[in-house]
Automatic annotation (TrEMBL):
Protein name stated in the entry: Cytochrome P460 domain-containing protein
InterPro entries: Cytochrome_P460, Cytochrome_P460_sp
Residue ranges occupied by any Cytochrome P460 domain in the UniProt entry: 39-169
Organism: Deinococcus cellulosilyticus (strain DSM 18568 / NBRC 106333 / KACC 11606 / 5516J-15)
Domain of life (superkingdom): Bacteria
């Protein structure tokens, strides 16, 4: 499955001058899934810009594709050619004696392999619409779609980030660009609730 997805994504990652209309999960679930395959080798082609610890023992690593990174850096809209991607890796923190293990900087130590990854892909569709983004969740090891994820809940939440093109961590990415340092913080909220770092800068 991963090998097939690798070739599919290779086409998406090529910068295209002609936007391709990627189907919406609401319009065509099968077509949307085919347009957003498991992103093979994303660690080699994308940039790590943030790591977040949460009190429920989840560690999340955030990656951005080069075209999306350049769009934020140049204050331009995300391209709609299919190569503007975000990936979030979801890890369980290591523990011992019912306590999470911490590194020298007092950050949680994640397990070696993430359980799942979440992917957002900028689509070509109606300007300003929520479904300009295609989203999917995958099991890291197998590349198979995580059926437990409620994509409609994901969309409903991201609506509140409309002014930043529906990407909550865009202010975090801007701080990464300004400092050149991967952003790292402890978020006091569990699950995927918004952290203060996701708020717009004053």
């Amino acid at each position: 499955m991963k090998r097939v997805a690798q070739y599919a994504l290779a086409g998406l990652l090529l910068v295209s001058s002609t936007p391709v209309r990627i189907p919406s999960p609401q319009e065509n679930p099968d077509g949307a899934a085919a347009a957003l395959p498991y992103p093979e080798h994303y660690r080699e082609t994308m940039t790590l810009y943030a790591v977040v610890d949460r009190p429920d023992g989840m560690v999340r690593k955030l990656y951005v594709s080069q075209s999306a990174l350049k769009a934020v850096q140049s204050k331009q809209p995300y391209p709609t050619s299919g190569d503007a991607l975000y990936v979030i890796e979801n890890y369980r923190a290591q523990s011992a004696n019912q306590k999470y293990l911490l590194d020298a900087q007092r950050h949680m130590v994640p397990k070696d392999i993430p359980e799942t990854i979440h992917v957002m892909q900028r689509r070509a569709n109606k300007a300003g619409a929520m479904d300009n983004w295609n989203v999917q969740s995958f099991f890291y090891n197998t590349g198979e779609i995580e059926g437990r994820a409620n994509l409609f809940e994901c969309w409903a939440c991201h609506v509140s980030a409309e002014k930043r093109e529906f990407v909550f961590s865009r202010p975090v990415l801007q701080r990464f660009l300004a400092s050149g340092q991967v952003q790292r913080w402890d978020c006091p909220k569990i699950n995927r609730q918004l952290c203060d770092q996701h708020l717009d800068p004053p």
